[in-house]
Amino acid sequence: MFPEQLPENRPLGRRLRIRPGWAPSNPRSTTPDPDVERRKLHTAPVQHAAATVAGVFGLVGLLGFLPGITTNLGALEFVGHHSDALLLGVLSVSVVHNVIHLLFAVAGLALATTAGAARGFLLGGGVVYLLLALYGAVIDQDGAANFIPVNTADNWLHLGLGAGMVGLGLLPGRPRQ
């Protein structure tokens, strides 16, 4: 229905559900409409960090299933330290290990939507990875307790990743002005 076809007593915005500020007040103006500027999404540095870390987790989770990137992919086990598959020829992986990385990616992207949740993801995930580094350092890598699987390279990576995530979790929670 065109505006000229609406009854005189019905407001245009209510009938067509047009929200104020949906278009610039002056379409030929090159200056931004203040209403549009006010509604822009402002993200905090901690949210950018969480989304970036989540993206890296997703990439690593996918790469763990790709031949050429993961050596001995035919020896990829579902779970456990018997998997001879090595991501980049160095890091032990299994199907469950790769799926955990993918789940961390989904959680990180979902939690990066608010500063508080992003901070929780980075700090909580960082603590998990620091504990995983400790776990990998104290267990027998050839024993039954090594169900993830981890090796020395994984332990160093988990230590650095945990420390990095905790550090990123301390980034400002407000967008820069």
Explain this structure.
The protein is mainly alpha-helical and 177 residues long. It is built from six helices and three strands. The chain has a three-stranded antiparallel beta sheet. Helix 3 runs antiparallel to helix 4, helix 3 packs across helix 5 and helix 4 packs antiparallel against helix 5. The mean pLDDT is 77.
Give start-end ranges of low-pLDDT stretches. none
State the end-to-end distance. Answer: 43 Å
Quote the average pLDDT: 77
The computed structural class is mainly alpha
- Which value, in Å, is the CA radius of gyration? 25 Å
Number of strands: 3
**Largest beta-sheet details:** 3 strands, antiparallel
H/E element order: HHHEEEHHH
List its traits.
single chain, mainly alpha, three-stranded antiparallel beta sheet, 3 strands, globular
Q: How would you concisely characterize the structure shown here?
A:
The chain contains six helices and three strands. With 177 residues, it is mainly alpha-helical.
Please render the helix and strand layout as text.
Blueprint: H1 12-16, H2 34-39, H3 45-63, E1 70-71, E2 86-87, E3 91-92, H4 95-111, H5 115-138, H6 152-169
Antiparallel strand pairs: 1-2, 2-3
Helix pairs in contact: 3-4, 3-5, 4-5, 5-6
